[in-house]
Amino acid sequence: VSVPAPAVEQGRSCVFLTSSRNSKKMEAGRVNGTIQYCAHTNCCVGFFRIIEGQPVAELQGCKMVVGGCLDPACFTSTTHVDYIRCECSSNLCNGNITWNAEEKQPQLKHSSYSADDKQRLSLPEESLTSLCSCHISKQSDMDLTSMELQQIVGSGHFASVWQGSYQGTTVAVKVFPTWCRQEFTAEREVYGLPHLVHSGIAHFLGAGRKSDSGDCVLLLELATCGSLSSFLSKNNSDWTTTLKLAQSLSEGLAYLHSDFYRHGVHKPAVAHRDLSSNNVLVRDDGTCVLCDFGSSTILRSCAGPHGWQRYMVNVQGQVGTLCYMAPELLDGCVNLSSGWCLIQGDVYSLGTLLWELLMRCSDLFIGCPVPEHRLPYEEELGASPSLEQLIVHVSERRERPSVPKHWKLINMGCLLQGLHDILLDSWDHDSDARLTAQCARDRLVSLAPCCSI
Ligand SMILES: Nc1ncnc2c1ncn2[C@@H]1O[C@H](COP(=O)(O)OP(=O)(O)OP(=O)(O)O)[C@@H](O)[C@H]1O
């Protein structure tokens, strides 16, 4: 691949190549011949098709989505079908790609979603017939010698999360002790999936091992407002802020659940399986991002129900917060013949998260105090309900978090009715009757104009 003679300006310049099919790429920055000057990002990207063992550029330019890319060179150790891709952070770095041809992955011929599932997930026709990437891609470790840990920002069952710096960039560093290597590997695998870059998903910058302790490390974007749970316990929000949080949350989940095939690479649907307000982060622009994919299941087309089944754990051993778990997961009545049930379990959790958000919206409590931040069912069952209590309350009695009466009774136009319906349709007892995350997102978007509270 030949690199054009550089005519580099200040800021990032990338080699530019596109086709009429990808005219969107032009929006990422001004183009002059074969060079693009990036408007918002420091990253160049390149997609190459491998033809007779050689990479032939198909698409090059500035990265469309703002986010980090820590490798100055265009390098990949992963080959998906006949395509390779890189992101890099030096001028014109996307002109040439270096990759390890030995690691070319096997091709698969069919997807094992049922026809029904495909329809419900709105899979593009292309993904039904195309080859899919059904391998665990081997990712190279980053050199972490220049990484610094500054202060701890959170911790969970498996890892501690630090604010840190890496090559001058402020990052979040999720450190897994050596005995949590399995959790690290599972989460890294999800972050490493093709096309997992989305504004609603924590941006993954790389992974490696600490040289001193051998601890495994994930580098992520730092969400400066912390978890949604800590955000809600400190702040209540007006309608506009609440809606932005709710829309971005459902958008991130819809993207995670999506299954598509782009540039020759398959993005499988992923079920998060541990959604809670601790596993949703808030950026300083007021949007939510999903994180903590350690319990997630990648619905790889080749894995089929048996592949998914190995991820199912007894709820007694479930690390997620029980109060977000769907009734069918609580009582164990789950049909594993389709990945659909895992996806719809996430939609139930989304409903409870939306409730948690809305209960802190000051515009929905005019004339009365905004309630303190509460977890779903906290009012009815206390802060740490047992599995047995939840089975009785949620699965058997079919109770749901209590929605303030005035949301249903006061006539405030379409807004409150719309909100109430989104909740009811997300946490429906019948998982098949629930919305999809995409549908929840669309309904939230449609609420915005009818809001005059
Ligand atoms: N990228 C980030 N930016 C800011 N804070 C973060 C980030 N990632 C995680 N945190 C904080 O660290 C906490 C723990 O992170 P995370 O849930 O990923 O850890 P975990 O050990 O996998 O947790 P769990 O027990 O839920 O499995 C989060 O609740 C959040 O407060």
Automatic annotation (TrEMBL):
Cellular compartment(s): Membrane
Chief localisation class: membrane
Catalytic activity, EC: 2.7.11.30
GO terms for biological process, alphabetical: BMP signaling pathway
Segments forming domain Protein kinase: 147-445
Membrane-protein topology: Single-pass type I membrane protein
UniProt-recorded Gene Ontology molecular function terms: ATP binding; transforming growth factor beta receptor activity
Pfam families registered for this protein in UniProt: PK_Tyr_Ser-Thr
PROSITE patterns registered for this protein in UniProt: PROTEIN_KINASE_ATP, PROTEIN_KINASE_DOM
Classification via CDD domains: TFP_LU_ECD_AMHR2
Any single Gene Ontology cellular-component annotation: plasma membrane
InterPro entries assigned: Kinase-like_dom_sf (IPR011009), Prot_kinase_dom (IPR000719), Protein_kinase_ATP_BS (IPR017441), Ser-Thr/Tyr_kinase_cat_dom (IPR001245), Snake_toxin-like_sf (IPR045860), TGFB_receptor (IPR000333)
List of residues binding ATP: 174
Superkingdom, taxonomy of origin: Eukaryota
UniProt keyword annotations, A-Z: ATP-binding, Kinase, Magnesium, Membrane, Metal-binding, Nucleotide-binding, Receptor, Serine/threonine-protein kinase, Signal, Transferase, Transmembrane, Transmembrane helix
Cofactor(s) needed by this chain: Mg(2+); Mn(2+)
EC top class named in words: transferase
Protein family (similarity comment): Belongs to the protein kinase superfamily. TKL Ser/Thr protein kinase family. TGFB receptor subfamily.
PANTHER family listed in its UniProt record: ANTI-MUELLERIAN HORMONE TYPE-2 RECEPTOR, TRANSFORMING GROWTH FACTOR-BETA RECEPTOR TYPE I AND II
Name under which the protein is recorded: receptor protein serine/threonine kinase
Organism field: Salvelinus namaycush
